[in-house]
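Case study 2.
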Amino acid sequence: MSGLVQWRVRHGCYRMAVFYIHEQVNGSMREEHGHGEFLDLIDAGNAAGLNEALHSILETILQLPWLSTNAGGIFLNDTAAGQLVLTTQINFSDPIKNACARVNYGHCLCGRVAESANLMHVSCVDERHEIRYEGMCNHGHYVVPITLREQLLGVMVLYIDVDHAYDAGEARVLENFAGIIARLVYTTQISQEKQLADLILAHSSHGVVITGRDKKIQWVNEAFEKATGYAAGEIIGKALAMLRSDRHGPEFHAAIWRSVREQGFWEGEIWNQRNNGEIYPEWLNIVALKNRRGEVLRYAGTFIDLSHIRAAEEKIHQLAYYDSITGLPNMSLLHEKLEDMLARSREGGGRVVILTLDLDHFHEINAGLGRRVGDAVLHEAAQRICSAVDNAVVARMGADEFAVAYLDSQHDEAATSAMAGRLAADLNARLQVALEFEQHDLALDSSIGFAWANGRDVDADALLRRAAVALAGCKKQSRGGYLCHNAEMEQQANYRRFLGMAIGKAVERDELYLMYQPQVDRAGQVIGAEVLLRWQSGEYGNIPPDVFIGIAEERGDIIDIGRWVFERTLDQMVHWRNEGVCDCGYFPRMAINVSPHQVLSINAVEEFARACASRGFTPESIELEVTETSIMQYSDYVIEHLQALSEQGFKIAIDDFGTGYSSLSRLRNFPVNILKIDRSFVSSMTTGASDAALVKSIIDMAHTLGFQVIAEGVEEFAQLEMLTGFGCDIFQGYYFSKPVSADEFLAYAKQGVCKAAGAV
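Prediction:
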């Protein structure tokens, strides 16, 4: 067999194998989500794994015989920046690696393909190749867009020899490889992508068999031996038909050889049999090798063993639709199952019921005891949930949230609700049984929200939304219980959604304003105030802070709002200083509430310090209050930022202490200056001896650790008297003053000594 014929056989096999892989991946993996920014899907810790996977694919691609320059690269798309990012390359020169690290859309050949999303062939670089350097050799390019459902994910550039002509077959092969790369980027984690790339590409070796015109085997290669289990010595001279399985009838094989006779080739999927009797699928390409007179001399068959690809399909399906920790269906498969149930309910009646379940305080277990313990908790929770239900879909929706969905075709609405309620109670009871793991007794308390509907009322997304609304309501009202969705909840959810759209425009519309609640020391001197944010919406009226602050945090608007509060407070202090009162003994400091999102934002420390310096204030005059709950939730990340703020001179206060499940001993690791006892403890200490003892112990331990203590929510003389006796340093509450405007606060501060401990 001539070298040219061998090349055509190899080329045809590669083309068919890649086409098959592409079609199988396309057919088995259905996108249920929008695409968004694909660079953000890979977190920084896994970037090396992605590079390795793509590099492996690129190496495989560069083995194609017509890419003899053995050079190329893969770029991934950074949509926000309008750039391509060089992710991996082979044999790029240092100038190219540096110049092409990031390529703007429209710039050079790769940038133009990013704009057009069309494959480009250039036989020799011309003026469109804008990156040039001394000593650059002439070369050509195939530049291939990497797309998924018409969205650009990246670009692949492959170097070719000068004057290498465009070939449609080559282009199709490269486009199919680009399709595989797109699927890998989107559907799997980086380590799994590498495994799939190795499986689908690196292990897709093809077998070759040559027969005479009598279809008796004359020659096979090692890949054939490995795939079929037949050694060359035992197969040569035997009829090709001995490889057949009983999967296909005589008509099938007759059609194959009719195509070979009439067209000169046949290609397609076929099931053959290995030496051990195993039946396996392969993609087969048969070519008739003829002489000049058109007489058949031999037949050449090249094939890809599809067994690994079928296994890869199953693996991909497992990765795409099942959770790796619990083995349960994930959100994508749950969505499909819900749509199927809803369709059945439309046709046959009944209601689709879904319960969404959240493990309370799972974050503390995961953060405090480690991910291995957290994974064990999730696995145990999954088993307990599955044991409680039959004929239902149990899924892990993400993090510590699970779902149970089933079709109820037997009951009316009241009975459906009652049945779902009983199931929710049973689930809670099963989960509340303590889990023992490596000498840890772990509680699996849960909150559950449930909803139901039929396919005529809602789709899967709407039903999931209803259950999520019910779950949020349950967690807000009473953790550890369950709650059924109702119209009032939907109205509240819509209200929050409308508020979310409005809060983003509150600063622009000048709807925010500040109030000040005085803080008084033991001598009755006003030493400052807590700055309190208020929102008077033009559409919805006066919105309480405990409503809009959470919404602003969820939407990411809290950073801009927090910056506005900080700078507006400083501006007010400038005004008071110009009036001759600030820094003159009236109130040496202001306490400003900050969100953990604000503290963790980029350049937060520099922004705070710069804002103070630009107005002539030192950071020592500002107290930053962070709630105990948030500082515990983000403790692994926020401590470094708080330390930097403290080093700048800002005072750090822990607000609402006692509500965040922390301890004073743990807080000593934080750069804390001030502890604010939550108002709930202050309000109850005059009526409960245990609460009073708790408040006293907090004050004593805080002083031992060097913290000042502020009691907020002081409303009665008896509370003030008791707190004074306990040694509390600073007081705040309606006993002294409600939150007031800036002018009212100034007038209050000028009164001098107030009715505090020193005046008692």
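Residues 32 and 183 are 13 Å apart (CA to CA).
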